Amino acid sequence: MYGLVREHLTSFLAHAREHYDGGLPKYVEAELRAFLKCGLFSEGFSRAHCDACGHDLLVAFSCKSRTACPSCAGRRMANTAAAIVDRVLPDNVPVRQYVLTLPYELRRLAAFKADVLTAIGRIAVEAIFASYRPRAKRNGIEDGQCGAINFAVSGREGRGGRRRRSERLPR
After folding, report:
1. DSSP 8-class letter at 56
2. Closest by CA position to 27, among listed 127, 163, 130, 169
3. Buried b / exposed e across 37-46, counting CB within 10 Å, b at 16+?
4. How many Cα atoms sit within 13 Å of 71 on the Cβ side?
């Protein structure tokens, strides 16, 4: 992917400016340019030195992108998942994952209006909870509790080009 972006970024941006009203948003271009600098020692690095053995370790700076860079986005995703498992989710409790994909007509609206995204997320979580309560009662659990952690990924939010929202909804 790096080679593809490096080779075609300039022509891609020019094409977008010509064919799309206003071109691409500035944050998209910034993310792609940051991706091209990610992990390059020429863009900066940190040096760690071990006094005991005399070994030096050089670590190139990363772009910390949430979108364009697979390495940085993957690291962030893995760290977030580990933190949730280690610090949030209780042991010995069944966990399910649901992915809600919006129709194209709603994606743009949800991407630019946080209240719409919040409402859609709340409705989805409440519908899932409503489906679990009768099942719990059928299994002899009278006052079952549900919880949710939502991650909403949307069109844009700040520099990262991604809206992330994490909330715990006890029931």
Report:
1. E
2. 163
3. ebbeeeeeee
4. 13
Q: How many other CB atoms are there within 10 angstroms of residue 32's CB atom?
A: 21
Residue type, 38: C
* Percent of the chain whose predicted confidence (pLDDT) is above 70: 89
Q: Which amino acid is at 142?
A: E
pLDDT tens digits for 102-117? 888 888 888 888 899 8
In one-letter notation, the amino acid at residue 82 is: A
Q: What is the rounded CA–CA span in Å between residue 80 and residue 89?
A: 12
3-state class (DSSP) for residue 60: strand
Q: Let me know how long the chain is.
A: 171
Mind listing the pLDDT tens digit for each residue in 11-65? 999 999 999 887 888 888 888 999 999 988 999 999 999 999 999 999 999 888 8
